[in-house]
Design a protein that fits this description.
Helices cover about 5% and strands about 20% of the residues. The protein is mainly β. The relative contact order is 0.19. The chain has one domain (about 5-190): Rieske Iron-sulfur Protein (3-layer Sandwich), CATH 2.102.10.10. Bound molecules: FE2/S2 (inorganic) cluster. FE2/S2 (inorganic) cluster binds near residues 130 and 173.
Length: about 200
């Protein structure tokens, strides 16, 4: 693992790999013009304010990163294959059914940990000591092993999470990644920071 992939949490510098797409608000973040219609509102610039995110152009397999409450929030559009693969991990996971209610709102306490099955919304902070894991969607990369079907890998102490943010057994992170409160203003706009309902 390159030191370039190590996240300096003190500076709140979050690195994403080249397969990720970043749209972020707030000082210190780099905004990539992926979502041309998306602009941070004055309200979103205030710490703690809900953040509205247009996902109309989000492609399958691409990770969108926004900032909410000074934390990175990942929005991933998962493919049908990714969703079909999720049950395969259950015997390798610490909390496969999201029984720890602290890690997601009730409306995301389901098999996909999401409101809409294909759209995953997670706080991108490792539940071990707070590094930001990297998005690793590849199948069977050399450094993660043949049985890796895509997920998130924390470079600080090698915790692993699947594409629903569920932590694997045998790694330092004690719990699944957090699903933040979020809701859909319409089919294409997510509001991070405001609770919603199950789809
Ligand atoms: S901070 Fe992620 S594994 Fe330690």
């Amino acid at each position: 693992m390159s030191t370039d992939n190590v996240v300096d949490t003190k500076r709140r510098r979050f690195l994403v790999n080249s397969t990720s797409v970043v749209a972020a608000v707030g000082a210190g973040f780099v905004a990539v013009p992926f979502l041309s219609s998306w602009m941070p509102s004055e309200r979103a610039k205030n710490a703690g304010a809900p953040v509205e995110v247009d996902i109309s152009k989000l492609e399958e397999g691409r990770l969108l990163v926004v900032e909410w409450q000074s934390k990175p929030v990942w929005i991933l559009k998962r493919s049908a294959k990714t969703l079909a693969d999720l049950p395969k991990f259950e015997d390798q996971l610490r909390d496969p059914h999201s029984e720890n209610a602290d890690q997601q709102p009730p409306y995301a306490q389901n098999d996909n940990r999401s409101i809409k099955p294909e759209i995953s919304v997670l706080v991108g902070i490792c539940t071990h000591l707070g590094c930001s894991p990297t998005y690793r969607p590849e199948i069977g990369p050399a450094d993660l092993g043949d049985d890796w079907l895509g997920g998130y890998f924390c470079p600080c102490h090698s915790s692993r999470f699947d594409l629903a943010g569920r932590v694997f057994l045998g790694v330092p992170a004690p719990t699944n990644l957090v699903v933040p409160p979020h809701s859909y203003m319409n089919d294409n706009v997510i509001q991070v920071g405001v609770d919603g309902e199950s789809a």
